[in-house]
Amino acid sequence: MLQTMRSSAKIVMWVLLISFVGGFLLFQTSGLMGSAPVTSTTAVASVNGRDILYTDWQRRAQQLVQQTQQQSGRTLTQDETRRLDNQAFDDMISELLLEQEYKKRGILVSDAELRDYARFAPPSWVRTAPDLQTDGRFDPSKYQRLLSSAQARQSGLLSALEQYFRSEVPKEKLFEQVTSGLYVTDGDLWRAWQDANDSATVSFVAFAAHQTAADSNVADADLHSYYDAHKAEFDGPGHASISVLHIPRVTTAADTAAVRDHIARLRAEIAGGAKFEDVAKRESNDTVSAANGGDLGKGAKGRFVPDFEKAAYALKAGEVSAPVLTPFGYHLIKVDSRTGDTLALRHLLLRLQPSDSATAKVDRVADQLAKLVSGSDQPTKFDDAARQLGLTPFRVQVSENVPAQYNGKDVPSASAWAFGGAKVGETSDLFDGEDGYYVARLDSIAEGGKTFNAAKAAVRGRVARDRAIERSIPAAQGLATAARGSSLEAAAAAAKLTVATTGMVTRAGAARQFGSLGEAVGSAFVAPLNEVNGPVRQSDGVFVTRTDARRPSDKTRFEAEKKVLRGRRVQQMRDQWIQMYLADLRKSATVKDRRKDLNAQLRRQSTS
């Protein structure tokens, strides 16, 4: 929960080791290892003929899950677990593809190279470690002393560095090969500078696309033709519609007062001589830091949420704060030491939560709901339970791999459940969220991917929008013709239309007023002054424009900043080339993904 309030830099890698072993043991004891259809040799995917084993993927995913749970101090939702499953899967595919490229290109890394990288180019998780800072900055001399100490070997730092650089150095060599020869000419830099800094005042009339029911009335054959011509644009995630019942946990003013009184008593106990560390271990709801006496480590400003940080930096070394309220609850903060902006801190957290009696009441209703509907494949049971318990269902549209949201709040685990093999009409088990309990029913689902049926609704929407835009062109053409014979304002007034003016803006500023950056904005910045331009079609409408004034970019300033601009542009191009290269590598690879099939089989097996 307090992930934003802890330093992410760790030198000792025991957490990773524990997570790895824990995940492996969890998988081994889950019953999946030796039960059909999944065995120790079952492939969850193949990449250019090389298998990724299901057991290896699950081990990697469990490692990420346990590591994240340790950092957050709570159990993850199904949405979060699914995201980490996908991350582990994508990482393993990328690693295999890179290994194949290293072999193809003859890229090797010597032990001497590894030693040099470890000594002189430490990774960010080392450079940001609090114990290696002096006055808030990384201290190379401290790092060199650590490397030569027995602690580096005993803590696992040396092996962690070797593992890190064995992965990163060949990758960097590959990327150097891919991006060698990158250069940006003065002309390219100047054009980019102009695009960002040219200014103009543009008057325009916008013809928005107003769709009608007839626009959506498109024959399947025409939809199919459009899809075939724009197939790459519709390779999106799946979509589903779910109905949700929510039993909220409500924190009252009395509950808040009780927590405030409780933490005030704890502060009095500490002021009376009790050790802060002991009270934090006993009372703090931040279980991760509580195990270490509330220790949040040492670091500079920017680690904490604003209210917490303001209170912390107002303290002297050894002082304990008054109760501090943040979005996480009430805190007591103690500063162990202070050097400039670097603080070593401890805290004790009490979360705001409903009283025991209110919680018990909510739990009873949740138990009733679970008994009535959990796991049912009869849609009517969901509606019957809502009426019986006085709950109002709400409908949510969800996208695959994106947490469901309603009124700006997450509906935990619902999206992952919907795309995890649930059938239309099925009701989920009870989901436990921070603000209450949820149950979801799957009302409809459209699988993602490159199929016409999956994209059909989106194709129909695109065709309808294009038809509406096309219908606006004659009116825009008539306005442009009339405006050239009089003025834009006179022609617009006669047509009962409104002329908008941007004021002196760059292309980005004009795009905000036009609605998007497209052909209309681009043409307005190059059109002759005071001439009516258009009609110009964009993806969101049709525009008739007139450029009223123009202020060119400052060439003197460009020359002064050219060196910095070139370095920045080359780095941007390098990043873009690398991303394009990796995307092409993935696109050209033969990847057979069996996750959905295996998960569906396991799900059927667990319910049989």
Kindly describe this structure.
There is one protein chain. With 608 residues, the protein is α+β, with helices and mostly antiparallel strands. Among the domains are: 199-236 and 453-551, no CATH class; 239-250 and 356-446, Roll (Chitinase A, domain 3); 253-350, Chitinase A, domain 3. It is built from 23 helices and 19 strands. A hairpin with a 2-residue loop joins strand 12 (404-406) and strand 13. The relative contact order is 0.13. Residues 1-35 have low confidence and may be disordered.
First-last Cα distance = 37 Å
Across the major sheet, the strand order is 16-5-18-17
Compute the number of helices.
Answer: 23
Estimate the strand proportion.
Answer: 15-25%
Shape label: globular
Q: Low-confidence parts, pLDDT < 50 over ≥5 residues?
A: 1-35
- Total beta strands: 19
The level of helicity is 40-55%
Major sheet: size, sense and barrel closure?
Answer: 4 strands, antiparallel
Mean pLDDT level:
85
Tell me the radius of gyration: 30 Å
Q: Structural class, from helix and strand content?
A: alpha+beta
Could you name the key traits of this structure?
globular, Chitinase A, domain 3, alpha+beta, 19 strands, 51% helix, 608 residues
Topology:
Layout lengths: L13 H15 L14 E5 L2 E4 H19 L5 H28 L5 H10 L3 H4 L5 E2 L2 E2 L1 H8 L2 H5 L2 H23 L6 H12 L1 E10 L11 H10 L9 E10 L4 H19 L4 H8 L3 H4 L4 E5 L6 H7 L11 E3 L2 E11 L2 E9 L5 H18 L5 H11 L4 E6 L4 E3 L2 E3 L2 H5 L12 E3 L2 E11 L5 H34 L2 H7 L5 E6 L1 H8 L4 H6 L7 E7 L2 E11 L3 H34 L2 E3 L1 H13 L1
Antiparallel strand pairs: 1-2, 1-19, 3-4, 5-16, 5-18, 6-11, 6-15, 7-10, 8-9, 9-10, 12-13, 14-15, 17-18
